[in-house]
Amino acid sequence: MPAKQRKVALLGFRSVGKSSLAIQFVEGHFVDNYDPTIENTFVKVFKLKGQDYELRIVDTAGQDEFSLFPSHYTMDIHGYIFVYAITSRSSFEIVRTLYEKLLDMSGKQQVPAILVGNKCDLLRDRAVSIEEGKQLADYMHAAFFETSARSRENVNDVFNRIVMEMDKSEGGSQNKGGCTIS
Ligand SMILES: Nc1nc2c(ncn2[C@@H]2O[C@H](COP(=O)(O)OP(=O)(O)OP(=O)(O)O)[C@@H](O)[C@H]2O)c(=O)[nH]1
């Protein structure tokens, strides 16, 4: 079976760990220093449930409530990973605005999305509760994970899940004999 090609964008405030998550998933290591991203694409080929995938991960420049949402992020992208840091209230609050801008610009009512609260290794500095994360994820019709790009906690699960969500929304590999497994 040929590899399915999928493209996902990482969106969120500056310094929440978007690049670190992508690097941890694709290259398997953690980068301690902070180098602000302009835009970068990572590619990883992997197998999930017997299917090969070629996943392109678009690592975007950090956004804030005033940034214009780049229109090219609404095209040619199959799913979105919204990232905040559990240590930063403002990074959490910005997610809702970004999500609404994306729906507005794409003209869709729902997109395959995952909400990620990163830096969960920094528990002592927590500024956003798990409950708040879950509530926002419900609003976005998205799965919710807390991750640590540093310790690798839940990093693979996030990318595996977005691949499954993208397939689901396209009626892809999850469809068997007309029955959809959700
Ligand atoms: N403790 C901890 N630090 C993290 C984690 N993820 C990222 N960092 C650190 O947070 C800083 C910012 O990480 P980046 O991955 O560059 O963040 P970004 O969201 O890509 O930033 P922009 O390019 O500005 O959008 C770096 O110093 C990372 O080492 C994490 O899970 N835990």
Describe this structure in words.
- The protein is α/β, with parallel strands linked by helices and 182 residues long.
- It has one domain: 3-Layer(aba) Sandwich (Rossmann fold), CATH 3.40.50.300.
- It has helices at residues 18-27, 89-106, 130-139, 155-169, and strands at residues 4-12, 39-48, 51-60, 79-85, 113-118, 143-146, 175-176, 179-180.
- The strands form two sheets. Strands 2-3-1-4-5-6 form a six-stranded mixed beta sheet, with helices on both faces. The protein has a two-stranded antiparallel sheet with strand order 7-8.
- 40% of the residues are buried.
- Mean pLDDT is 91; it is low at 172-182.
- InterPro entries: P-loop_NTPase (IPR027417), Small_GTP-bd (IPR005225), Small_GTPase (IPR001806), Small_GTPase_Ras-type (IPR020849).
- Keywords: GTP-binding, Hydrolase, Lipoprotein, Magnesium, Membrane, Metal-binding, Methylation, Nucleotide-binding, Prenylation.
* Assembly type: single chain
* Integer tally of domains: 1
Low-confidence stretches: 172-182
- Per CATH, the class reads Alpha Beta
Q: Compute the separation of the termini in Å.
A: 23 Å
**Percent of residues in helical segments?**
25-40%
Which sheet architecture does the biggest sheet show? Answer: 6 strands, mixed
> How many DSSP H or I helices?
4
CATH superfamily: P-loop containing nucleotide triphosphate hydrolases
Structural class: alpha/beta
Quantity of strands, as a count: 8
Strands of the largest sheet, in order across it?
Answer: 2-3-1-4-5-6
Evaluate the radius of gyration: 16 Å
* CATH topology value: Rossmann fold
What proportion strand?
A: 25-35%
